[in-house]
Amino acid sequence: MAMDVNQPIFVISVAAELADMHPQTLRQYDRLGIVSPSRAPGKSRRYSQKDVDKLREVQRLSQSGVSLEGIKRIMELENQVAALQFKVAELTEELSRRRSPLEARIFAAGAGGDVVSLARGQRPRPRSQAVVVWRPRPGDKRR
Predict the structure, then answer these.
(1) Highest mean pLDDT out of 38-47, 49-58, 98-107, 108-117
(2) Please, which residues have CB within 8 angstroms of residue 5's CB and are 6 or more apart in sequence?
(3) What's the rounded Cα separation, in Å, for the pair 68 and 75?
(4) How large is the average pLDDT for residues 120-136?
(5) What is the value of pTM for the model shown?
(6) Which residues have CB under 8 Å from 135's CB, separation 6+?
């Protein structure tokens, strides 16, 4: 049976040992929001394998000369990139499910200035179904 990498199972002393850090360093990272472990009912920290891997990455970046504020920003950007990649995959999958590009929706301005979604080849419906016909008046120069 495979271990769930997101399962919070390690107490702070074990996580610190696995990450080759002092437990106080882990507390500091938690305060700064760099690595946020789960909390057990007694408020003790519980770290997952994913948290330990993140701690190792923090240590690698720190040893490369990146400041803690820089590490925090890098991790925020990595999370943002991962979320965007997930969204792109979702949208790509949705596009691939469409049978034909002709079924794709398009958008147009409705009669009231609102945005309406239409199938290709459709036009927005007017506010009322009344047909407006222009009839010239006597003396009107338009024909």
Answers:
(1) 49-58
(2) 48, 49, 50, 53
(3) 11
(4) 60
(5) 0.59
(6) none
* Banded model confidence at residue 71, pLDDT cuts 50, 70, 90: very high
Question: How far is 126 from 108, CA to CA, in rounded Å?
Answer: 12
CA distance linking residue 58 with residue 87, whole number of Å: 26
Give the closest residue to 73 by CA, choosing from 60, 86, 58: 58
The answer to whether residues 52 and 45 touch, using CB atoms and an 8 Å cutoff, is no
Q: Residue 39: what pLDDT?
A: 87
CA-CA distance, 42 to 44, in Å (whole number)?
5
CB-CB contact of 23 with 13 (8 Å): yes
